[in-house]
Write a structure and sequence with these properties.
heterodimer; A: alpha/beta; Methyltransferase, Methionine Synthase (B12-binding Domains), Chain A, domain 1; Rossmann fold; 2 domains; 5 strands; B: alpha/beta; TIM Barrel; eight-stranded parallel sheet; 13 helices; 45% helix
Chain lengths: 223, 306
């Protein structure tokens, strides 16, 4: 890799670590003008930054503000870098789509939004249905958008049982086998996922990304 | 208790013995049929008899201080369910119910929880906006007749400071503040990354009389955190753990920790210097009763204040 490009990617990486959205946008614009490979800038620059923050967050050495601001910087950069991608042939490569929401009766927002942000910062197309999402609405949206993943968040043991209703609804609508269901939130567990017939369980936002990437079998990161 | 003791300041009392807060309100309300998704504060007006009953159960269990059912009754929090216009009525009704349940010699704490908004730059809320919402709620609680304020479950030091400053704008009553900490590899931190010692100092400077921690951690983890808190401040401290993590067993929410093991941990917390203890999520009057028994049996010597 030429030295100039390497330095540029390092700047993108730093902008994410610093949670500097404006800088990420400026760099993304510069990348488009200079005709740098947008995938390279996303993966070796921006996403590398959010991966580092994600690791630090899991280890407890960085906290929610750094993670959220870093993810915002990545998202801002990606949206600028995507323009040329969408115009090119490569743009035809569909981004893996995810539908996410907090289950009916539960208005907890933080964890769900963090998972949505991290997924979209890692190259997924995320449709966030918000909180207190009715079971029928999950099914309706899954029918409309045909996502690869449906992520259900619950923070209350009492309402998490509504997840079962979503899964039954998908089954009745013949959609169950067309997507993977991932559950998460404080009271969820691998055994809970198994009990209700979900496919996947993620302990936190970073693991959700890791698991989704593993499932689709192509790491967005080029090794 | 004599009427003389009833007038004694809660802070004065804590110099003589450990003072006991109540346990969970939400846990109790769910057991009495509060539908999920309904803000518990609405029951101050729609089901006052149940709120009163919960307070009375905690008083009978031996709590010295009961907390008003106003954790989510700031206008900013109520706005999320479209109930912000009821802010005054809900807070007034809550104090009235707690006062009715509170005999002489016991105390009513005006309870204040987070607004649910994130401050800039993570969220959109401004410091001044939070401070005003807290101040407004505190003013209602204060004129309705609380004896002290208890700010709880703050996951962002800045929001906790906004609450302390907001309360201090309208009242000089004793002010308790609990942050909620997670256990990380490098120690205990709030969700926003605030560390214990410097956070408690800032709360003290802002006007808190008692500082400490509640929620998030079960009693075992709280034992260790309590000693960290004790070393961090000269103020009296308060610690209120959860009854472990809830588990779903055959469609029902169950807290697996038993009152006796919880009380043993609380006793360790007292021995490491806590002046005020109580229970957070999952605790019931049974927990408070068990703590009360064990504390009474303990020959208590105030620490950190001598």
């Amino acid at each position: 890799m030429e030295k100039k490009l390497k330095g540029f990617l390092e700047k993108c990486y730093r902008a994410v670590l610093e949670g500097d959205k404006e800088k990420a946008e400026k760099l993304a614009t510069e990348a488009v003008k200079s005709n740098y490979d947008p995938y390279l800038v996303i993966e070796k620059g921006l996403v590398r930054g959010i991966e580092k923050l994600g690791k630090d967050w899991e280890q407890g050495t960085c906290f929610l503000p750094e993670l959220v601001l870093g993810a915002e910087a990545v998202k801002a950069g990606i949206s600028i870098l995507q323009e040329p991608i969408l115009k090119s042939k490569a743009g035809k490569r569909n981004l893996p789509r995810v539908i996410i929401g907090t289950i009916e009766g539960d208005i907890h927002d933080i964890g769900k939004t963090l998972v949505a942000t991290m997924l979209s910062a890692n190259g997924f197309e995320v449709i966030d249905l918000g909180v207190d999402v009715k079971s029928e609405n999950f099914v309706k949206m899954a029918k409309k958008y045909e996502p690869r993943f449906l992520c259900l968040s619950s923070l209350l043991t009492t309402t998490m049982q509504n997840e079962l209703r979503v899964i039954e609804g998908l089954r009745k609508a013949n959609l169950r086998k067309k997507l993977k269901i991932m559950v998460g939130g404080a009271p969820a567990s691998p055994s809970w996922a198994k009990e209700i017939g979900a496919d996947l369980y993620a302990e936190n936002a970073i693991e959700a990304v890791r698991i989704a990437q593993k499932e689709i079998g192509h790491e967005l990161k080029r090794k | 208790m004599s009427s003389k003791e009833s007038k004694k300041s809660i802070l004065e009392l804590s110099r003589q013995r450990v003072v006991l807060f109540d346990g969970a309100m939400g846990t109790m309300l769910f057991s009495y049929g509060l539908p999920f998704g309904t803000p518990p504060e609405l029951w101050n007006l729609s089901h006052p008899e149940i709120i009163l009953k919960v307070h009375q159960e905690y008083i009978r269990a031996g709590a010295d201080i009961i907390q008003t059912n106003t954790f989510g009754a700031s206008s900013l929090k109520l706005k999320k369910s479209g109930n912000e216009k009821k802010m005054e009525k809900l807070n007034e009704a809550a104090v009235k119910l707690a006062r009715t349940a509170c005999p002489d010699g016991k105390y009513v704490a005006g309870n204040i929880g987070p607004t649910g908004e994130f401050l800039e730059p993570v969220g959109k809320a401004k410091y001044k906006q939070l401070k005003e919402a807290f101040s407004e709620q505190a003013e209602v609680l204060c004129s309705a007749g609380v004896d002290l304020f208890s700010i709880e479950t703050m996951f962002d030091l800045r929001e906790a400071l906004a609450a302390v400053e907001g309360v201090r704008q309208v009242s000089t009553l004793p002010l308790f503040v609990c942050l909620t900490f997670e256990k990380k590899t490098k120690g205990y931190f709030t969700l926003m990354g605030d560390e214990v010692s410097s956070s408690l100092k800032k709360l003290e400077q802002a006007g808190a009389d008692v500082v400490g921690a509640n929620c998030t951690l079960g009693s075992k983890d709280m034992v260790r955190l309590a000693s960290v808190i004790r070393k961090s401040t000269k103020l009296p401290i308060i610690v209120q753990p959860n009854a472990g993590m809830p588990k779903l067993v055959k469609g029902k929410t169950v807290y697996l920790q038993k009152p006796s093991s919880f009380a043993s941990d609380v006793l360790k917390i007292v021995k490491s210097g806590a002046n005020f203890v109580g229970g957070c999520c999952g605790t019931t009057p049974e927990f408070i009763k068990t703590i009360k028994k064990r504390i009474t049996a303990l020959e208590y010597k105030p620490s950190g204040l001598s």
